[in-house]
Design a protein that fits this description.
Largest sheet: 5 strands, parallel
Low-confidence stretches: none
Distance between the termini: 16 Å
Helix content: 40-55%
Shape: globular
Strand order of the largest sheet: 2-3-1-4-5
Length: 170
């Protein structure tokens, strides 16, 4: 059983494989895995889409920041972050204080293939297409790259292969 010295935060665009990879990585390392979106859904007793619709994106983003504070109180674990977590500098600062930030990357085509049938991606509602995904990815890339301690390309890899790349990078 490997014990982590600090959290491992998985960041990246929606549909890049953060959740799948986190689950496998946690098993391989023998540590707990937490998904920030799932933690928010449990805390708020609403789906992400309902939170966006009822409270707005800014409320959701502030809730994400509060989740990092809760994670700081837990044993080091694998954390799968929502796609926008690294967009707020305060979140990045808090993540870096308590862990390593791993950026998972993929092409817009790969992302689209992963999310095209999803109905729970509020930022893609009405824009489920490669050009829009590419545009949003380009807007977010500078913040993702600035936040990352480690960058892992996921195109053509299974979540298990991505987990192995992360282990090799730690």
């Amino acid at each position: 059983m490997n014990k982590l010295k600090e959290h491992i935060f998985m960041i990246g665009f929606m549909g890049v494989g953060k959740t799948s990879t986190s689950r496998i990585l946690s098993k391989k390392l023998g540590v707990k895995e937490n998904d920030t979106d799932a933690m928010i859904v449990k805390q708020e007793k609403k789906s992400i889409a309902e939170i966006f619709a009822d409270e707005g994106e800014e409320y959701f983003r502030k809730t994400e920041t509060g989740i990092i504070d809760k994670l700081a109180e837990l044993e080091p674990c694998i954390v799968s972050c929502g796609g926008g977590m690294a967009m707020r500098e305060v979140n990045v600062e808090k993540m870096k204080k308590i862990g390593k930030v791993v950026l998972l990357t993929a092409t817009p085509e790969t992302i689209y293939s992963h999310v095209k049938d999803s109905t729970n991606r509020p930022l893609l509602n009405g824009n489920m297409n490669i050009p829009y995904i590419k545009k949003l990815m380009e807007e977010r890339a500078p913040k993702y790259n600035a936040a990352a301690d480690i960058v892992i390309e996921t195109d053509g890899c299974t979540p298990s292969q991505v987990a192995d790349k992360i282990i090799d990078s730690l």
